Amino acid sequence: MGNTGPPRTRTRPWCSHCGAGLVVPPAGAGAGSSSVRCALCHRVTRIERQYRSVGGNSMLSAPSVDRRELPAAGAAAGYPVARGNKRAVLVGVSYTGTDYELKGTVNDVNSMRGLLCDKFGFPSDCILILTEKSDDPRRVPTKENLLAAMRWLVAGCEAGHSLVFHFSGHGVQKLDTDGDEVDGYNEALCPLDFEDKGKILDDEINETIVRPLVQGVKLHAIIDTCHSGTILDLPYLCRMSRTGYWQWENHTRRPDKCKGTKGGLAISISGCNDDQKSADSSGFSDQSASIGAMTDSFIKAVGSEPGTTYGRLLSAMRSTIRDGQGSGRRLLTGRFGSFVRNMIASSSVQEPQLCSSEAFDIYRKPFLL
Q1: Is 157 a catalytic residue?
Q2: I want to staple 202 with a disulfide (CB 3.0 to 4.6 A). Which of 32, 38, 93, 233 is the partner?
Q3: pTM as predicted
């Protein structure tokens, strides 16, 4: 076999806005430049092709780029460079000065940040926080900033990455127009400027942070809003009875409209069913400051049951909320009171929900962020 020369080395160009890998058309007959649109953030990056010497031979290639020096998604907007295999976006929207102002959302974010750092080893500089208290206008939870943060969360994700998206604020329902919702309604998050810029529908949330997940990537969404049961539009919803019986419901109404991942695992833990409203826990939490009932129950359940499973986690969260909501039920204490609270249904009590991109045994699969 004849000598074919030194092997061709290839360097992959990356989006200058979000850090995602770019697919560049084959080079022409000489050095030059071209503009490539990123499939993830849809921004345009200019690619300069140039000759470089490899083993004494000149060859055309994309410029050499050290992936570690590139900002992750949203860094152009002042977001942190995500290093390591854990990153999170924590959003608290208070709607300050409006008739629908919320008091506990910033406390929710601070509590979640403490949980992620102290219990699950998330680096503090890989946690992006959006609240109205931020002095940086790029970290205020507007619709534009929230979508940029969501793109930052999933950009360049690889096998072994653990991602967390937490949202505390208002959620609403809107009439479904494309026939992919079992109940006929889309769920939506309300950013700070939703009255002017619009809400973020579950379809867009799914497209932004669910479908990009490749094999080996794990996403947990903890959503503390009203009408949040299927807020990520995931294919499976877990129905759990008060006695612990559970089964997965397939919510794939249109097989032609994919709502799954690219092989990764997406799980959402939400504050209530799609037709329910959520509440804060200022009336029953042992904390002096108001905090969302769902966020409070989640943190307590994770803290009290190390190595818990998804089934035990969901049961513990529902028990915490049932114990705290409803003045009549709080008069019943002890084992008998617990039995009554578990057996008597009440539509006024929110029930946290579990959804997933794939079905699994909720009492065998360990919960780990």
Answers
A1: no
A2: 233
A3: 0.73
